[in-house]
Amino acid sequence: MNSRPELKLDWCSFAAAKYAVENWHYSKCMPGGKRVQVGVWEGGVFVGAIIYGTGACPQIANPFGVGRQEAAELVRVAMRSHSYEVSKCIAISLRLLRKLCPKLRVIVSYADPEQDHHGGIYQAGNWLYVGETKPIEWFVDTTTGKRIHTKTLKTGRRGLATKLKAQGKIESIYLTKLKYVMPLDAKMTQRLVKLKQPYPKRVRGDTSDTPADQAGEGGAVPTRTLSDG
Fold it and tell me: Mind spelling out the 3-state secondary structure of 100-157?
């Protein structure tokens, strides 16, 4: 007999997703751009949000030979302690997304080795691993050790980054992420299988697909509404 609470996924408000990200995701930051938010409830209690969006890369669709409206990114999985596997929740959220956006053909997501993530939740959901991204420049404050996103200093302010580096106040680091894709139709599957690589192995501190993956504290019961934010 299943003793786990009833699982429910539905569209949730921007406020609910924002609460989940700020409390239960390591980034503590809502992604920009257009997005849709799927809430996760267990036994009527809100335990997290799964967010899809346009992503930070304008060329997200280019490697797949599809239009910009045919590709999206899974930008956040923010969940507190919960009973059901994250891969199961993502699979249900994908079904909701496909009904809302029937023209979508591929979903992209990334695992961050800097956070000791290897993509266990994607591997458990049979996503395809297609390799590491190209190294991206970030900056590190040499006094505090805090990382600074490239856009913070480079967007219209490249001279500032150069000046701070010359002063020894920041230094560059180059980071990569692990890229996973989920094809949404047979033709896209045939195309992407050719790019498939062996799954990366688990790294220190990473979980595979345990119910407590990306767990946090607290809870909320927001209204189940669709919001563009």
Answer: HCCCCCEEEEEECHHHCCCCHHHHHCCCEEEEECCCEEEEEECCCCCEECHHHHHCCC
